[in-house]
## 1
Amino acid sequence: MVKLSAIQLTSAANVATNLAAIAKILTKITAANPIINNNNDGITGEVNEAEYTQHLVVLPECCLYFGGKDSEQLSLARESVPGNDLCSALGALAKKFNVYLVAGTVPIISSCTTKFTNSSCFFNPDGELIGQYDKIHLFDVNVSDSTKNYCESRFTQAGKEISVVNTDFANIGLSVCFDLRFPTLFQQLSKAGANIITVPSAFTKVTGKAHWQTLLQARAIENQVYIIAAGQEGVHENGRETWGHSMIISPWGTIEQSMTIGEGYITVDYQPEELIRIRQSMPLNSPLNT
């Protein structure tokens, strides 16, 4: 059995505060969905394979620092060093709670040192970093909200490559927020074998209300994949307001679970047989994609 969860946060401009908030919600998730290990630790007798539970948890974009200035994200990336960095802290959470953790995004210093990558980092239950995706499509737009103008590229270096991480239960495609508006990226992830695509996000309230659900369902339907979309929600310290409405969507486009406002989580069972059934009953292989 595999569980899929999305965590919704109202992240602050403070790493310790956000780590504590994530740990608190992970405690609730694992208490409600106990994980049975396959190594028989603490279990009498043999483990029934049907009872062996794995859990994939997705955090929002900027899960460890949000609501401050982009220049502060750059400083945070510069201060991170191996053994005492953001990834180490997130890996420790994955190990403590024995989950696969897609850690939204964290700032990682780029080779030029004047910019950082907005990176989605994927940890296994041993706390090991098994995948990383650097956000390709940066949010440089004008929006009719209190912030008005967003220019992510001022301090962020765009990524160049897609990322699909293979696990023993599914192939996980990684994306981030604004990527959602670019269907070609999702098509590339699907063609590379993705069964599940994660969408950690910090959609603005204005754009989220208009397009969030529509885009998520479209990406799920046209690629016949599970979509796990974990969002930031609420009014943050710098006045920016995010949409929330975290969702887990089936390959048929059905919203299986959603959460509108506040901090918390949603969880569904991953059903690979249903994914296979949908793909076999309605093949979407196109000569243009071969």
Note: The chain has one domain: 2-289.
## 2
Amino acid sequence: MNNNTHNESSPLPAHNQPPVVPVLLCGGSGTRLWPLSRSQYPKQFLRLLGEHSLLQATLLRLQGFPGLGRPVLITNEAHRFLVAEQIREIGIEADILLEPAARNTAPALAAAAQWCRRGGQSPLMLVLPSDHVVTDIAAFQEAVALALPHAAAGRFATFGITPERPETGYGYIHRGAAIADGFAIDRFVEKPDADTAQSYLDSGEYYWNSGMFLFRADRYLQTLNRLAPEITEPARTAVDHAKLDLDFVRLDGESFSACRADSIDYALMEKTDDGIVIPLTAGWNDIGAWDTLCRSTSADFYGNTCEGDVIAHDSTNNLIRAESRLVATIGLTDMVIIETADAVLIAPKNRTQEVKAIVEKLQKDGRTEIDLHTHVHRPWGSYQGIVQGDRYQVKRITVKPGKQLSLQKHHHRAEHWIVVKGTAQVTRGEEILLLAENESTYIPLGVVHRLENLGKIDLEMIEVQSGGYLGEDDIVRLEDVYGRAK
């Protein structure tokens, strides 16, 4: 710890406690959960444990907590429409800040703190990763409530997970002297070996580092500015020069990119004497790999955790997930089987961390299976690849009510559109066509076109592409309501 730091804060009376703004970190690629998690659809957007995604569950577990302000979500360009759609699904409005470059958590939170301080306010920021699981919501909210007076008084509260086993995959926090409802932070510890992890567990003085925090926005900026002004100054400029774009706040790219890349742990928490750890026992799981998912799911009589169309014969203690077809097993034990429409992972449970080697191989070979599923989400709806061959491709396209695709053209392909549900308004060159179910049209190569759904139900259609090149980058957008036209 840095003994030269000093407390710049003054305690606030309880009745003057500022509002609590949830700040969700929505970046990350989640490659350890491949093939379900892809770079363009990472784990925070997956519905791994029920009807809600991990991102949605993170917001919903705050329901009923008093004094909450409007959430702030930090994400990147590639995931912006996924974030917007997922919070819309659960009826939550939020400010969505777009990071123009990956600079780790300290700059991201500096920008969020600057954003929260608009108008001279200084709320408490409840910083949460968007891809963790918490099963005991009451215990989680109670821990946040215990941290409130500490954060309001200027301390940096983090939540230490009471360890359940000698885990070597997490960083640890060693607690110091007791402070009301928590402990001073003696030190942060990197991921230990097995023997050291066991000694941590036996001592009862160590907690897993959850990456969740609660602190005042102004206090964070004051302290970080003293410790790392090369982060706070560019972040402030990035917010000052930010631009509104539809539902998003675009941070200034040149300014934000000038921030030093660093985590909040290294940049601030390990250097301040004003840190406090609040113990948390709430069924926490960061789902770092497929084997850890089993800890948050219920198994059948044979120890199998199955999702989808699965037949497990004479098989025990497996995680089996079928996304698009029947998966049948015979005589398997302690295995993970994850099936998607375009990839299947089969691995022993104790080796699922090695998924990263598969992802690295796919990256090296330029394979698309690390980036996208066959079912691809777009701001207007989605499309799903059905079949692809030499010089042709078939897709199923779904357009939500009131949505439209960009006005566009292609240099290398023609398209046939067949409406199977709903009504489509089609711009084809100078023509405006209205197509009902079982009607079709043809878009010749190079012709400007657009597809719109003016109805009140989803528009579904089959698209048959033909041509010498069928890549998604053969789209020339002339107009686009989502800001994607070049």
Note: The chain has eleven helices and 30 strands.
